[in-house]
Amino acid sequence: MRLSRFLLPVLKETPAEAQIVSHRLMLRAGMIRQEAAGIYAWLPLGFRVLKKIEQIVREEMDRAGGVEMLMPTLQLADLWRESGRYDAYGPEMLRLKDRHERELLYGPTNEEMITEIFRAYVKSYKSLPLNLYHMQWKFRDEQRPRFGVMRGREFLMKDAYSFDVDEAAAKRTYQRMFVAYLRIYSRMGLRAIPMRAETGPIGGDLSHELIVLAETGESVVFCDKRVLDLPIPDADVDYQGDLTPIIDQWTSVYAATEDVHDAARYEAEVAEGDRTETRGIEVGQLFFFGDKYSAPMKATITGPDGVDRPAQMGSYGVGVSRLLGAIIEASHDEAGIVWPEAVAPFGVGIINLRQGDAECDAACETAYAALAKAGRDPLYDDTDERGGGKFAKMDLIGLPWQLIIGPKGLKDGVVELKHRGSGERETLPLGEALTKLGPGRP
RNA sequence: CGGGGCGUAGCGCAGCCUGGUAGCGCAUCUGGUUUGGGACCAGAGGGUCGCAAGUUCGAAUCUUGCCGCCCCGACCA
User: Fold this and answer.
1) Residue A429 contacts by C-beta under 8 Å, 6 or more apart in sequence?
2) Interface pTM, i.e. ipTM
3) For A174-221, how does the pLDDT look when each residue is reduced to its tens digit (9 = 90+)?
4) Cα–Cα distance between A121 and A69 in angstroms, integer?
5) Which of A104, A131, A309, A321 has a CA between 20 and 30 Å from the CA of residue A116?
């Protein structure tokens, strides 16, 4: 992408409304624009990161046996009356009527709809397990939206819903999602800790929240700091095999949100030096809730014994849009965002220090073409801005690599290659820089 | 939803108390000089001062109502 053909409205000054660093940086880097309280437009740069995060979630869900689909944002009120949640949900649910006075709602979650779909098509235990997911915009009319995309009213969530023949099978599904979630956040450069949690309005009796430790988080959490060093399962983890050892390893170390915190157990189990009481950002949650929806909505399946029973269900959410905020909270410096490679909006930024200089332009075009061909997704700053603005802008948007090409260096046959995360720079011939950035290279 | 605050150019703000020609910095545009880490000089464009009613000869400024947004708290992916 050429910067002169992109929309990147970076701000030098910090907008007054933004309090926390991720919100400030997202506004300054031209990633989002607020359209109403808790409602944001995703500008091109932010949209690219959103898509990267979606894709990681998709790949790991598919690996763990998930099947992607897409449900609508609008749902019929009557569907929610079946589960009893239409009245129970409260003012957070946005309710509206169409021209025929039919009552609709903008979905805050999709348990009812997926259960309705499931019961329409699936009758036999032979069709199970089934794990359906989608990534769709949700709306929850928060009383006080804040912190940018971390707590918006409209947000993008990946929500998966599992159906199993009995509780034992459902818990194996829960374990698969547990492992998939460890991998999802890890691939984004985040350390997300599964913590015992309350089940909330979704309901059920087994739940973990995935928490990224951060001072700006909204939840108070307690954990054993040894949980930070546990290994993340490899990509070739056998989802058909027994995952219990992995789950036991992660759940045997104390980690709980404030709501379910057990001070006595905490002090008994965790060595004093390992006790960590801090704040965290919730980036996902796992629920097992059995027949909470399948029983009232009559989503039954016929077992091998010929008897009909409600399917055993679970649901598994990832706050996709919230993750941008969480990643920035975890990865930034004074100059701006430092994107983990896997979610960076572009792989490398090319800075042309003397736009209009024939030799300089030619070298930049060579680099741009080569990096694009190598799949490095370059962003070429071909504007004629002068001074340090190009450097500051590139640092702000946080691309992993910067290739800096100017007339002085070219006179000696060299360019500068800068790594954003470490701040390391090296001077080398353009060809070597391109080899170094070539396909498959970090 | 309780408490507090703010709406003036794209962004950040002053002006309001004490009514009288709408300002500053950044950004944008033009011309020139420049060019290696948030350039310089000269010029230009851009505003129904959130909306509505009221008071007044006259309202960004005073009064009332409404709308929007932010912060603290309680609640939530």
Assistant:
1) A413, A414, A415
2) 0.93
3) 999 999 999 999 999 999 999 998 776 555 568 999 999 998 888 899
4) 15
5) A321
Which nucleotide is closest, CA of A320 to its C1'?
A: B77
Nearest nucleotide (CA of A415 to C1'): B36
d(CA A442, CA A436): 8
CA distance A198 to A288: 11
**Closest among A328, A331, A350, A325 to A415, alpha carbons compared:** A350
Q: Which nucleotide is nearest to A391 (CA to C1')?
A: B37
* Tokens standing for residue A14: 């910090």
Span CA (A35) to C1' (B14), Å: 27
pLDDT at residue A45, as a whole number: 97
CA–CA distance, A250 with A211 (Å, rounded to integer): 13
A346-436 has which CATH code?
A: 3.40.50.800
What residues of chain A score a pLDDT lower than 50?
442
Write the CATH number of the domain with boundaries A3-336.
3.30.930.10
Q: Are strands A130-139 and A67-68 parallel, antiparallel or unpaired?
A: parallel
- Residue A69 CB neighbours (<10 A): 11
Q: Are A294 and A257 contacting, i.e. CB atoms less than 8 angstroms apart?
A: no
Residues 139-198/A with CB < 7 A to strand B: 140, 142-147, 150-153, 155, 157
Provide CATH 3.30.930.10 ranges for chain A. 3-336
Protein residue closest via CA to C1' of B72: A144
Of A residues 192-221, those with CB within 7 angstroms of nucleic strand B are 200-202, 209, 218-219
Tokens of A433: 């820089």
Å: A302 CA to B67 C1': 56
User: In what order do the strands lie in the sheet containing A401-405?
Assistant: A378-381, A348-352, A401-405, A415-419, A425-428
> Which part of chain A is CATH 3.40.50.800?
346-436
Hits for CB < 7 Å against strand B across A residues 409-428: 409-410, 416, 418, 425
Answer for A392: CB within 7 Å of strand B.
yes
